[in-house]
Amino acid sequence: MNKKKIFYFLIITVFLAQTGFAQTNTTAINWQKFLSRNDLVFDTLTTKWEEGVFTGNGLLGAMLYMKNSNALRLEVGRTDVIDGREGSPAFEKARLPIGHFELRPEGKILKNTARLDLWNAEANGTIVTDKGTIQWRTATLSQTNVIVFETKVSAGERKFQWQFHPEVSISPRTKSRKTPNGYVANPPSILAMTGAVEYCKQPMLAGGDYTTAWAAKNKANSKIYYISVAINRKQSSVDEAIQTVSNGAKDNLQQLLNVHRQWWHQYYPQSFISLPDARLESFYWIQQYKLASATREGKPALDLMGPWFRYTPWPAYWFNLNIQLTYSPLYAANQLDLANGLVKMIDEGKENLSRNVPVAYRHNALALGRAATSDLYSPVKVNPLRDTTASESDLELGNLTWCLYNYWLQYRYTMDESVKAKLFPLLKGSINYYLDVMTKEEDGKWHLPHTHSPEYPGGITRDCNYDLSLFRWGCATLLKINPGDSLAPRWKDVLINLTDYPTDANGLRIGRDVAFNKSHRHYSHMLMIHPLCIMNWEQPESRPLIEKSLQHWLSLKSEFAGFSFTGSASIHAVMGQGDKALDYLNQLFGYTKPNTMYLEEGPVIETPLAAATSIQELLLQSWGEKIRVFPAVPSSWKDLSFENLRTEGAFLISAVRKDGETKWVKIKSLAGEPCIIRPNMEGKLQIKGQVQLKDLGNGTYSFQLKKGEEAILYKNENDLSLKADAVKQDGRINYWGKTLSKLTAKN
């Protein structure tokens, strides 16, 4: 083994040790074959971003589609290329465009095809012209900030053109919204060359610049382009960009790709899901690819577009639903390292969370408004008496508490005491704001002042259900974390004496002063049902209100957007209604684009990712300190399997369902917590493992595993031979993309 091979071997070994990817995978799955049936496949690329193929490494990324009928476009993005001026997160502090590379053949394009290879995290395709062919492949390398674009050409296409086109450095919101007075673009970009490396420097008015650099390595009938983007807010980023590209071009491409692929080959098997529905299975795995392409441990938190830039009105973070849904599928997928980006952003933004609160409450309270950059500066203006200068967005009090619900999930799915310790003062500060502004009225109940229910027109109301839900959840959670805290009596008092959720003949209202009588895409008034599950279907007394509220919301659909359907699917899933949940997921696909992206004027990445959560909830749920296996399986899904889905309490759950019957359920404890489980298995159960099974009735059992121990629930010994594996599907494989032909699955 030569020195360079030893070097790359050591990189891989150290990487696996650091990331914890050494966990044993016991499925029978052939991952390459399995994921290939879920690849994005295009019989033809178009000029639409939402019909392109995409790669990324959690920071840097590229979207490839057609610029016009005779040129390919490689759009470059980097998630931390953000303006640094003082002002609005949507203008002065917005995500900024970078530019794109254009590949123009010598001849006229007759045909172009593309495929996104999920297993190897690279895209490839062929351009056929009237003069020859150009075969290409591209990847955004996992372990270095380099995009590789390789071409192999026939004789007639050796002189194709390759050119970089910088974009004007200005907030993309200017394309669709009124520009603030005095707001101007950053200075023009500067194209230059150093040695073999070309680059484009983009100065910023706030200081520093960002640079796109690229270099080509020529071989016989082949060219390899190495591309990178760097940003420096104080000095110039040119040297870093040039050095990154130069280093990449010096290395052997195959060795770079081997390291890149190794990361992905360890990423996917952290959990496994296979469905008889080819469309949903493929969709799910493309979301898992998308998540790891868009965010990583130590990289910026995921915003609304990830590293795939497109002009949009939403070039920042939104905190009244979007980021919470974006991160929701990572917990059950056993990808907690990726989910840590949100936790880290909240930790680092604590100073601004305090500044976001009116001066009178900064001594003990924290809050977060509707939109911000990663610094989390977004003031809130909630007071016991309504501030008449406050806009609707100024009155969104619950956003931080909802973000901290995700933080709580990070703790519950890991049972990492250090996470809980950091969460407690944040959640305490968030709930303190509610305590500071609540008042007791003549009915002897605590009431909340005027706040805003996200996105509901005219949704400013007292006793807003969005806030009452989060306030209740927050007090109950603080008591779980630290029942001996000096404020514990106040939290208990709130849980006893907080006013009931405002309701009327149609179910849950927006709040005390506002009925739910308009179509509303957001389900903010039903947050107690999902995701908080503090009002749930397992409470018989709650069922009439849940059903009435849900049906009334669904009866007014004219303003529904994509996440309305994921919310509908998830609520039906926690009600155990799998067929209805599946119906709403299928309705969502009328809004989802061929590459599984989702647009509302611009990219809003949370919707397809939330659908991945809805799919998980059909197979496994763990709210309320109880694990539910196959709780909402659609009646048409007879065969299912999954392995190493994670639950609250830090359990890894695996299960196989065959001919409509659960055959076995494996539980592995990662933290030694008590286990209460509903395995969805009728009749007398057997257990394999050194534990005592206690029957709690109603199909629910409890037992205690030590950390690292596992047990298997089953009925028949012969069923244990069944492996978690790819289930058979009828219909099209490679459902997503843009295919002209029908392909039949061969399993």
Automatic annotation (TrEMBL):
A single BP term in Gene Ontology: carbohydrate metabolic process
Leader sequence residues: 1-22
Origin: domain of life: Bacteria
Keywords tagged on the record: Signal
Domain Alpha fucosidase A-like C-terminal: 621-710
Segments forming domain Glycosyl hydrolase family 95 catalytic: 278-596
InterPro entries noted in UniProt: 6-hairpin_glycosidase_sf (IPR008928), 6hp_glycosidase-like_sf (IPR012341), AFCA-like_C (IPR049053), GH95_cat (IPR054363)
GO molecular function: alpha-L-fucosidase activity
Protein name per its UniProtKB record: Alpha-L-fucosidase
